[in-house]
Amino acid sequence: VVYFHGGGWVMGGIDPVDSPLRALANRSGAVICSLGYRLAPETPFPGPLEDVLAAMSWLGDRAPSLGADHERIVVYFHGDSAGGNL
């Protein structure tokens, strides 16, 4: 599961969702990655999208070392607000 935080492109981060995502990972046995991205106005669009694409490439290259079974990888993207748009 790959999760992107919300915040209307200008605020937010991964800390507020850390606890519920850890609980979900423990209950489900899934590998869950909560990813941050650069925010506006310092980083205009498409900066956040570029961050997401770079992170997905990084995760794909390191899936086995993160505990993901490379033969059973299913990517489920989830997010709220701006994170849902990404």
Q: In words, what does this structure look like?
A:
It is a single chain. By secondary structure, this protein is α/β, with parallel strands linked by helices. It has one domain (2-81). It has three helices and three strands. The longest helix is centred in the middle third of the chain and has 16 residues, at 47-62.
How many structural units, i.e. domains?
1
Number of helical stretches of at least 4 residues = 3
Percent helix range: 25-40%
Overall mean pLDDT = 89
Poorly predicted parts: none
The profile of the biggest β sheet is: 3 strands, parallel
- The spatial strand order of the largest sheet comes to 2-1-3
Return the string of H and E elements: EHEHEH
The chain-level structural class is alpha/beta
What is the CA–CA distance across the termini? Answer: 14 Å
- Please indicate the percent range of residues in DSSP E strands (runs of 2 or more): 5-15%
**What is the strand tally?**
3
The best one-word shape is globular
Radius of gyration: 13 Å
Break the fold down into its secondary structure elements and pairings:
Elements: E1 2-4, H1 18-28, E2 33-35, H2 47-62, E3 77-79, H3 82-85
Parallel strand pairs: 1-2, 1-3
Structural features:
86 residues, three-stranded parallel β-sheet, 3 helices, single chain, 36% helix, alpha/beta
The gist of it:
With 86 residues, the chain is an alpha/beta fold.
